[in-house]
Amino acid sequence: MTDEYPEFLLNLPHGGPVARGRLLGEKGTNGSQKMVVLAGSPARPEVVPSFPVRMPSSHRLREQLREEGTIKETTTWPGWLEVVSDVECNSPSAAAEILLGRSANGWLEWKTADGRPLADFLEQASAGPSRAWLVRDPEIDGLGPAADQMWRSRDRVTLGADRLRPGVAPGVSKERLRAIVDEDYESAVAYSQRARLVEEFHAFLSRMRPGDTVCLFSGGELYVGEITGNAEQVVSEDGRSILRRPVEWAREGYPYDKLPEELQQRLHSGHDLVDLTAVKSLLDGLWSSEAELRKVAEEASGASGMAIQAVIAHRELEFPQPEEELRKKLNVHELEWLSEVCDLLWDERQLIFYGPPGTGKTYLAQELAEFLGGGPEQVKLVQFHPSYAYEDFFEGFRPREDPDTHEVAFRLTPGPLRELADVAGREGNRHVPYFLIIDEINRANLAKVFGELYFLLEYRKKAVRLTYSDEDFALPRNLFIIGTMNTADRSIALVDAAMRRRFAFVELSPRVEPTSGLLERWLEGEKKDTEPADLLDALNARIDDVDFRVGPSYLMKPGVYREGGLERTWRTKILPLLEEHHYGEGVDIEKRYGLEALRASLVVRKAAADEDEEGRGTQ
Q1: How is the beta sheet containing 434-439 ordered, strand by strand?
Q2: What is the pLDDT of residues 192-226, one digit of tens each?
Q3: N or C: which end of the chain has fewer CB within 10 A?
Q4: Angle between the 531-541 and 595-618 helix axes, to the nearest 10 degrees?
Q5: Is 43 in contact with 51 (CB distance < 8 Å)?
Q6: Under 8 Å between Cβ of 495 and 446
Q7: Could you tell me which of 49, 138, 39 has the C-alpha nearest to residue 83?
Q8: What are the chain's domains?
Q9: In Å, what is the CA distance from 121 to each residue of 89, 105, 112, 273?
Q10: Cα–Cα distance, 270 to 251 (Å, whole number)
């Protein structure tokens, strides 16, 4: 029976010695094929700290073998242990784990002398990377924490299949399964539900395989295990048809409130089976310290090592601290103000800069986002307008030409938010901040643009079902949103209370810093006469409505400081703003806000100041 399989080898970490094993045809108690670790194989002297929790049965077996002297110190390989007699294990993973002292996917880590993984020799396994799954088990659904030990002692996971006919075998094709489900469930559930059942049954029977990670959510805790054998269809104690797979469960559950946010988002799906492969690396990192992860990452190779590095990087998501160089570039009055803005954005994830036109809202948003994200590649800018809609912003059906047939058809097309969220949520990107800048955010109908995403802005740890693609979607924790709002634009619908609750608001206005002294600081840095700053202050002092005061950016352009540039800018940029503000009021704009009037007022003010100073000097 054993001659049909070659001898398999296992490389111990850091260039250590090589262990030898033999796959058996018979199955262990967990439903997986047994494997023998051959005498003379080396073993690691220590275990990683999370090993007793993650793989309790393999840890118990290793400890038993140590006590019996089957695994003991050796002179063959100084610094390593040795297996002195053959050890029969319930699965290839258990055989690898007692040697490595950590959790391991034996189907991939045991290899032939020419490098082929053991998975290539099994019907229900393949050499591709292992996957992760969340299953709602009907045998434990509704049980509280007191029943946890009871269900975990079963060493299995089940999926309800009440009406599925007997004899549906593992490996069944999706087309065959669709025909069976349509017939068996025709009078019981709607067509859309039958399509979902086909996906779930097919994944459980044909896509899952030994070595995959499986999760259950019960009693406020997430329980994680490893699938150890093939699927089978059985009848439960109450007479229902169920699908079942053997599993080795971790000894302890992981509290929901301590889970990474990406995992919390996926636990609220209403489906009985959910593919969690996109966040498998986060599952693998539960219970492990950063030091342990780094140690395992050094030992792992290929995709496994990259996944562990991704977990380490995910834990390192943070904003860089603003520096003096950035403060000077932005002409901000204090570094503390910049730090406070960054803290607000980190805590709230969404922030709006608001104020009159010309106060540098968009410029500040872009520069700050590029600094925090590490470059322009992590920043996307969109501008809202009255006709902007959900289909433009997130996703919708749009006419697209097929490049092969040149026929035009409506296809589901992602918008800027969906595109950026997909990039930010990739495994290798989760430690990098990404920023969506929404310019003129109050110019659109926000409820129409955001749709069901309104909910996610406040509840980042949840997911919602999308309108068009019918998928579960959540905003990645490393996606931040910065909006700008022009307070002078009152012809557009105001931001409602619900949106205000979802954003932090930072004022950029000529009446407060950093905007009030921005032009003067810029002029001094450019070694220019500060008269434009004095004129702007005098202008804004004459504007009663603070939302219509003029920002300094109008006077921070090179053209202003060419011959006649200040007069041109004042006549063509600033006075038209005020004409619109006073439309129909009969105000003489030039007489009240023109350069000649403002300069005259500055002369009077300076004379008064000089007189006052002279008076104080004679006292």
Answers
A1: 379-383, 434-439, 479-486, 350-355, 504-507
A2: 789 899 999 999 998 998 889 999 988 889 999 99
A3: C
A4: 100
A5: no
A6: yes
A7: 39
A8: 2-121 (no CATH), 132-285 (no CATH), 324-507 (3.40.50.300), 518-618 (no CATH)
A9: 18, 15, 10, 28
A10: 26
